[in-house]
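User: We ran a pulldown and think these components assemble together. Before we commit to crystallization trials, I'd like a predicted model of the whole complex to look at. Sequences follow.
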Amino acid sequence: MAKFTRKGKGGSPGISTASLPDIIFMLLFFFMVTTVMREVELKIFVKTPDATEIKKLEKKSLVSYIYIGKPRNKMFGDEPRIQLNDQFAKVSDIQNFIIAERKARNEAEIPFLTTSLKVDQETKMGIVTDIKLELRKINALKINYSTRKRIKEL
Amino acid sequence: MSRRSKSVPEVNAGSMADIAFLLLIFFLVATTMDVDTGLGRMLPPWMPDPIDNQDDKIKERNIFVVLINSQDRLLVENEWGDVRTLKKRAKEFIANPGNKENLPEKNMEEVPYFGQYPVSKQIISLQNDRSTSYNMYTIVQNELVAAYNELREELAMQKFGMPFDKLPEDQKKAVQTIYPQRISEAEPKNIGGNK
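Assistant: Here's a predicted model for the assembly, 349 residues in total across the polymer chains.
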């Protein structure tokens, strides 16, 4: 009968990996807590401009996003397009978008709804102005021009 | 007999790390670290037919007009302007430290913590062309907001000896009453003529 014999008592013992799961779990929890799920897939390029006097957007659940920029897919041309949720939109769709966003929220929260404009820095103001006008018509007055923190001097 | 005396074998925890890794990698990929930041603004309410006479009520000296044309050049109070000097000029306009004739009038108001304090009737009017670049527009907006923020900061340091951010809510309110942020974003005009 074959017997398993323990051979080679010498040599350094292996490092215990028992605490490895704990370390990984620690990292896991860190990322779980800090994770904000990507809400939309961007179909356009958005490189927001820089600014110094920025404010953090609080209460992400109360923010609706409007994206403007050049389409990633050349098929859609070079002109800046508006993206709402997951699809391209026209200026006339903005009002319905805001109404839909309001319906998704509590009635008491509606006055605190912010519209964040994520606009590419090379966009012309014309399209932005059209959107601002639509927002004024639907009475969504609280807006936020999304910008990054400027590091270098102007 | 010898088997019986052994204790229950431990559950192999070796694969636990793999499971945890799997979850970790998922969250790593799904994480977006960037905090959303930006310039907060309030739009004026929509009026179906604007009342033209209302503009006449605001005196010329109380308005600081900043125009940005389609070539991204500035016209500040009817002269060519520069972004680098814009903040300084806006600050001088808002505060009007020398009580100059051509800068905004002041109105004595009762402000908590300050008592009777001359509050200027300033308004900054920002107008742009449809072909102005968004980048330039935000730079100018940023400079104007910076002017207000710096004035508030200076006042907070002078009166309370603390930065504006650290002040209690009611003292913040008082400082804001003295320097209220009034930036009007007017409808754009086709200054350049081209669409």
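The mean pLDDT of chain A is 83. That may be worth checking against your pulldown data before setting up trials.

User: Thanks, that helps.
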